[in-house]
Amino acid sequence: MSAAELLAFDREHLWHPYTSMTDPAPTRLVTGAAGSRICLDGVGEVVDGMASWWSAIHGYRHPVLDEAVRGQLDRVAHVMFGGLTHEPAVELARRLIDLAPEGLDRVFLADSGSVSVEVAMKMALQYQRGAGRPGRNRFLTVRGGYHGDTFDCMSVCDPDGGMHAMWSGVLPEQVFGERPPGLGGDVAAWAAGFRALAAEHADRLAGLIVEPLLQGAGGMHPYPAECLVVFREVADEHGLVLVFDEIATGFGRTGTLFAAEAAGVVPDVLCVGKALTGGYLSLAAALCTAEVARGLSAGDSGVLMHGPTFMGNPLACAVASASLELLSTGGWAADVRRINTGLQALHGIDALDVRVLGAVGVVQLDHPVDVVEATEAGLAEGVWLRPFRDLIYTMPPYVCSDEDVAAICAGIAAAADAG
To answer: Which of 124, 220, 260, 301 is 20 to 30 A off residue 214, Cα-Cα?
Structure first.
């Protein structure tokens, strides 16, 4: 089919994320990608300011990742994980354990970020059942969070301003504390309220789940590392399983390999995804401590009640190991610092607020963004952006050059003016 025919069929038959089927938003046809750039039909090459929703940290068509996929295809593309195992899964688990905060040495390989969060929540619930506390079946979290689109995940997303407010009354009712203060905010005052809320509801709480250091799709809100210490202390005081959802923040995005490291805090369960495979294939993982693994096995089922068909997919595991090998050289840290320096130019934009953390830049407007107009303005500057709500932001590939980062800043400025 021609480009026009492909787009017409797409518009008539394909759902895209968070769009209407009857009145869909415009889409662009991708014809290729390499490095930090994607090629759009009718536009040409543009810098990808989104890293394909924060996953393509090494850029596109990376020779090491390409070769990992090709090499695995010569062996086995997929095999069931029930009763079988294979080298790519074992090697990936070994690498994850080596990189993750110490003590997180039990690995569940999931097929998406949402599934890894679902699994983490099951771990917490089954752990409490194994401890003889089946009445502890709710979760403590904070407002402004986002943890995925499946049902239990939606229940711990922001209950009012989040994308899932329409499901109120259908989802399990969780316990929400106030959003942590912004960088430089009053942590002590926030912590006092959060501790009081936890104490009030402790007898029915199974776990505490948060995105450490940076709340992603709930509002791109960074907060002080001291808050992570509060989360750990609250979990310990009340016997809660502490879950850190690092699907967006893991693998260097905020400046440390895992956001938890900024405060020296180790959660009981760690969820990773997105950048795990460098954006090549869908894969995620939930890592937990031996204590959590033993505790949930003490329950009535004796096993973790989850097992996706594509659990431990060999292709995805092989490319994930290659991605982690690239990260292990440490070059990402200098790249993130360099990108952070370039993103400081965003502070020159006239906006309600500008936030920069690691390789994340956020411009908040005082009104909802006109996504179509803002996107077009960014493309005119040679940059692909995907704004939402009142935010125009970037989380680019780490391989972006200084010129790429400057173009991204110019694109965001143009999008802010247009949107």
So the answer is: 124
Q: In terms of C-beta density within 10 A (0-12 exposed, 13-18 middle, 19 or more buried), how is residue 82 classed? A: exposed
Q: Is 223 a catalytic residue?
A: no
- At 352 the pLDDT is 96
pLDDT in tens, 188-206: 999 999 999 999 999 999 9
Beta strands in 219-308 (DSSP E): 221-222, 241-245, 269-272, 284-289
Does residue 301 have a pLDDT over 90? no
Q: Is 274 a catalytic residue?
A: yes
3-61+332-418 carries CATH number 3.30.420.40: no
Q: Is 349 helix (H, G, I), strand (E, B) or coil?
A: coil
Q: Which of 111, 223, 268, 274 is catalytic?
A: 274
- Cβ atoms 296, 271 nearer than 8 A: no
What is the DSSP pairing of strand 360-364 with strand 175-177?
A: unpaired
pLDDT at 164: 74
Domain ranges of the chain: 3-61+332-418, 75-329
Tokens linked to 180? 């942590």
Q: How confident is the model at residue 272 (pLDDT cuts 50, 70, 90)?
A: very high
Of the candidates 60, 127, 146, 398, the residue annotated as catalytic is 146
pTM: 0.96
Q: Distance (Å, rounded) from C-alpha 171 to C-alpha 208?
A: 17
Q: CA-to-CA distance for 398 and 299, rounded, in angstroms?
A: 43
Phi/psi-derived region of residue 70, left when phi > 0, alpha when psi is between -120 and 50, beta in every other case: alpha
User: Does residue 163 register a pLDDT over 70?
Assistant: no
